[in-house]
Amino acid sequence: MDRNKTIAFLGAGSMAEAMISGILKEGKISADRLYVTNKENEQRLQQIKNKYGVKVAAKEMLPYEDIDLFILAMKPKGAAEALAAIKDRLHPDQVIVSVLAGVTTSFMEEHLNKGQQVVRVMPNTSSMIQESATAVTPGMNTAKETTQAVKELLACMGKVFIIEEKQMDIFTGIAGSGPAYFYYLMEQMELMGMQNGMNEEMVREIVAQTVYGAAKMVMEKGDSPTVLCKRVTSPNGTTESGLRALKMFNGGEALSQAVNHAARRSKELCKELERVY
Q1: Residue 170: inside a domain, yes or no?
Q2: For residue 153, which of 1, 36, 87, 168 is within the disulfide window of CB 3.0 to 4.6 Å?
Q3: Residues 26 and 136 in one domain
Q4: Number of neighbours of residue 185 by Cβ within 10 angstroms
């Protein structure tokens, strides 16, 4: 995306901050071209301003004509109100990007003027360290160049995948919510280490390095997790014993259900918003 573009975040929560951090670290957009606003928490706005040097403003005071990209980053239930507030202040060349779970491109299009370009995005909080897995789905009026520009912007936060909107719920279950599953697993591994006399700080680093190394093997070697798993599992060895316990206690099924439940909740959020609005 052109470095001279101007972006406004409507919402100043953790996802907005993660995205701001990633964008600024990459240096594609300067801080003076990032605006942040929220509904009422002035203290939060000042915190963001002091930390990142971005501009903050009340929603009605944003320089609407000068903004190229509006990013919806409030709670999903506030999406319709936010869209209604900006609807008649937009021109067709401006782009609306939503990072809100359950807010579809059709929902945005229905709450904006005809022909407005919209993009649905699902990053995860690893964007804070530029390692997000982010999905992008364009709306029916969105130009290919616009989708590509949004993809290029989001690439400063990690890897970006353009997918069909019908795949967005399962992507949310896998990647949007996925970091939390791994944090949970890491927590359990840490606890086992500490219960067996290991120092908390050391075992945390050991677990993190183990997870990082396994992910890097998949990324760099090109082999499937199935192949890599077989490769490190010696007959009647420690790994085989551990994997047997995972299967015995339905570890695989638990992970599958975590993905399914998160995807189902994403779908429910869509329906809830449709019912209300």
Answers
A1: no
A2: 1
A3: yes
A4: 15
Place of tokens 């570890």: 251
Q: Residue 31's domain spans which residues?
A: 7-165
CB atoms within 10 A of CB 204: 17
Strands 132-138 and 117-122: antiparallel
Domain count within the chain: 2
- Phi/psi of residue 186, nearest 5 degrees: -65, -40
Task: Provide the H-helix boundaries in 12-120.
Answer: 14-26, 42-52, 79-86, 105-110
Of the chain, the percentage scoring pLDDT greater than 90 comes to: 74
Here the CATH number for the domain that contains residue 134 is 3.40.50.720
Q: How far apart are CA 200 and CA 206, in angstroms?
A: 10
What's the whole-number average pLDDT of the chain?
A: 92
pLDDT over 70 at 277, yes or no: no
Question: Predicted confidence band at 225 (pLDDT cuts at 50, 70, 90)?
Answer: very high
Return the amino acid letter for 212: Y
Cα–Cα separations (whole angstroms), residue 221 to 6, 133, 182, 230: 39, 19, 21, 14
pLDDT at 215 > cutoff 80 = yes
Do residues 105 and 198 share a domain? Answer: no
The pairing of beta strand 34-37 with beta strand 132-138: unpaired
Q: Please choose, from the candidates 58, 121, 104, 106, the residue with its C-alpha nearest in 3D space to the C-alpha of residue 85.
A: 58
Measure the CA dihedral 261/264/269/272, to 10°.
-120
Same domain, 137 and 202: no
Residue in this structure with the two tokens 């579809």, named with its chain if needed: 104
Beta pairing partners, 136: 121, 162
